TrEMBL record:
GO cellular component, one term: cytoplasm
Region of interest called Disordered, as start-end residue ranges on this chain: 246-268
Gene: Tbkbp1
Coiled coil: 47-153
Protein name, UniProt field: TBKB1 protein
UniProt keyword annotations, A-Z: Coiled coil
Domain of life: Eukaryota
Length: 268
């Protein structure tokens, strides 16, 4: 390049112009020579300046080319396809990010749906437990009421048994405890063996009737006691089942609270 510029500059030098006779139109005066020399110097100066600028531009162009090659090596997609490919690459990247985000959101949605299903199942279980709890409470109240009635019945039978035993003791103490004071002289004044036999038979019937009634009362008392024991065992079973339901409900409530606290902590 320098040789080319030197060839161009040589055109403007005095030696390249040849002798004065080659300049047909040039005036042969001192004033004209000085003016030509000044103009020639100005042209040479301007040309040097242009040459320096061109050299700087060439150097800058070379630097830009080197940078472009570096970028092409670093980003091979740039350069051949240009801005269109950059846009398509950006669009593909955006689509990939959107797909990834969509997949993540779908996964979260599936997880939330699964948790919702589990919550519904737990809610149904809790409703069943609450219904069973209420049913047990009603059964317990009914059993307690029936137990109270059975206790009152047992007390009644015990009172009846004590009364019958007292009557038996009174019968054993006297042959005819029910007779009044006027009957005794009447029997003494009119002795009759047949009448004595009838009275003894009547006393035996009364004694056997009292004994049968006493035995029936005792059997009824035993049945009432067995029924009371059965009711007590049923009450204890219901109380144990009720306590188990309460413990299970408290444990599930505690687990739900812990899961909610953990979820809030993860979200934060």
């Amino acid at each position: 390049m320098d040789s080319m510029f030197e060839d161009d500059i040589s055109i403007l030098t005095q030696e390249a112009l040849g002798p004065d006779e080659d300049w047909l139109d040039s005036p042969n005066t001192d004033l004209s020579g000085e003016m030509c020399s000044a103009s020639h110097f100005a042209l040479i100066t301007a040309y040097d300046d242009i040459k320096n600028r061109l050299t700087g531009l060439e150097r800058e162009n070379s630097t830009l080319k080197r940078r472009l090659k570096m970028y092409e090596v670093k980003y091979p997609l740039i350069g051949e396809f240009g801005e269109e490919h950059i846009f398509s690459l950006y669009e593909a990247k955006e689509n990939s990010l959107l797909k990834s985000e969509k997949a993540s959101l779908q996964q979260q949605l599936n997880q939330f749906q699964h948790e919702l299903q589990k919550s519904k199942e737990r809610e149904e279980q809790l409703e069943e437990m609450i219904q069973a709890y209420e049913k047990l409470c009603v059964e317990k109240a009914d059993l307690e009421s029936e137990l109270g009635e059975m206790r009152a019945l047992v007390e009644t039978h015990l009172s009846r048994i004590r009364s019958l035993e007292q009557q038996l003791r009174q019968r054993d103490g006297g042959a005819f405890p029910g007779l009044g004071g006027q009957d005794v002289p009447f029997i003494a004044l009119h002795p009759n063996p047949g009448l004595s036999h009838v009275l003894e038979r009547a006393g035996g019937w009364q004694s056997r009737g009292l004994e049968a009634e006493l035995e029936a009362a005792r059997q009824e008392n035993q049945r009432a006691q067995h029924r009371e024991e059965h009711l007590k065992a049923e009450c204890e079973r219901l109380q144990a089942e009720l306590k188990h339901l309460q413990d299970t409900r408290e444990q599930e409530q505690s687990e739900r609270d812990m899961a909610w606290v953990k979820k809030v902590g993860d979200d934060q």
